[in-house]
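Quick one - first record:
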Amino acid sequence: MTIDLYYSPGSAHCRAVLLTAKLLRVDLNLKHLDIPKKEQLAPEFVKLNPQHTVPTLVDNGFVIWESNAIITYLVENYGKDESLYPKDPKQRALIIQKLYFDQGTLYHRFADYYYPIFLTNAIPDPAKHAKMEEAFKFLDTFLEGHEFVVGNNLTVADIPLIATVTTYEASRFDLSPYKNVIGWYSRVKEVLPGFDEITGKEIMTKMYEPFFKTKK
């Protein structure tokens, strides 16, 4: 049985899937798509995913895209127990809430601020930077009094959040004011296998430093 993952390593959403698969010991057949070269628009890929987005997973003929859908599918299908995605409705609701926070707030505000700078050499917008700082204050508050984003155990909610936070870090966003985030970052790094090779500081710096070298 082959599980294909169409991905781009520069994408935090793709890295979240890679981290999840590594944690679950699920082997993926990686299919790198070069987004700047528009390989995602190849007819054979569009046939799989009409939205032509990465990540896209193909598991023995089953096709799913959107990173949170992929990681929860992998955990439910290949996880050995419920620890990462408990069936308790309240715990699950809190996890889903944090998944929405990652995509709808934390990552969205990253994209809103940094994408114009990286892609069009736009002048940084202080108001958008303040919105990122606000999002980190939210995350810092969520972590008050416990070790992970939902309680004291790693759940699937921590994985996309750490992928997003490492993207911020590589983009020279200052994490130092957010003490709970820094403590959580260290804990997640220790418990996620493959962290350094997938989304660690060294590899992320290599990916993002070229954006800064091209700035005026």
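second record:
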Amino acid sequence: MKNFTVFGYARTKLTDEELRNMISGTLTCRIDQRENCEDKMDQFLKRCFYHAGQYDSEGDFSELNSKLKEKEAGKVSNRLFYLSIPPNIFVDVVRSASLRASSLNGWTRVIVEKPFGRDSESSGELTRCLKQYLTEDQIFRIDHYLGKELVENLSVLRFSNLVFEPLWSRDYIRNVQLIFSEDFGTEGRGGYFDNYGIIRDIMQNHLLQILALFAMETPVSLDAEDVRNEKVKVLRSMKPLQLEDVIVGQYKGHSKSGRSYPAYTDDPTVPKDSRTPTFAAAALFINNARWDGVPFLMKAGKALHTRRAEVRVQFRHVPGNLYKRNFGTDLDKATNELVLRVQPDEAIYLKINNKVPGLGMRLDRSDLNLLYSARYPREIPDAYERLLLDAIAGERRLFIRSDELDAAWALFTPMLKELELKKIVPELYPHGSRGPVGAHYLAAKYNVRWGDLSSDDS
């Protein structure tokens, strides 16, 4: 794109040069490592400008509009507004930008960063307010997890490999696990986090979106609306979450190897008596012919022993397994498992049973492994890079439609309200541990063992 400019807009008073200095601190030639990196960075920075203004001031946005027109110099102008701001000012900005800084001869689009509300009511109200000034096809609700390489590859893996599609149902899959863990706490961001908690922050959006892509029926085409239609159908087929199918936890302080790790409530921005969960595990069910009775187990947590995000598909036991006695009594050890690791070290691997070479009959689990860094040594683009390009191109497949958002909140809102109404106290777990014991009981209730805790996967 030859003719583009980037404008920063906030209340803070900055010069163009100060903004460029801020950007240059993190700007790299990460994807394009070829010659003239410095020149490319300079060329980009010269296109970056800044305008200070209030979020609810139509006058300030009119001034921004004048500056934009100056740069556009009479050409057809397309404008993309990116709202990386607190949700309570979304509507003010959209109103001012829409009324005073919309493009008159091209398109105007708005990227909205989560959170999209706290529950069904606030989310519905936010959508209603945004639609006073924008049409649905101007709104791009961004969930950066949908731009991750492995999440994008989920549909390719399933729909273009004959070996997987026939197995993708209750007949062969015993359970599906969606796991997200971070090995750090809130680190001073507790003020924001305490208002939302791990369920709203990770489960209701990132993990549920991956689940919908995983479980949907084959769309008519890869057209955005066809894909999003199928995702909505899955979400609307799901049983609203019950409190008895949810475990919540919160990390406590812990000392290990002479180092002490803080508790969640040690964060100065968090109230001392906070009951906000920093960990949650849940069992979800899809009431349709393909997935009836298959538990979809989700867990997400902060301050755990490792950083990872993955989908684990555990297949059923082989009926009448000839080699049953070679596995002893633990049939789970003989179960095939497909793992899609989203981060870190992107990979897809399938656990298969294999004979250990030698004269005896000893069986072993091996991995058929596609490690991305080994197979594709090129740099993998950041999820936001892909999604920004999609928004510019008007490709909506990886953005969330309003009816999809409504269906997602309908699943979680009753349980979240009950959690707060009953003042459920989260189970404490040590900072850097594998999380609360309750998560194991929840999995055991559905005859499931968490795949990320097995000895060959830690």
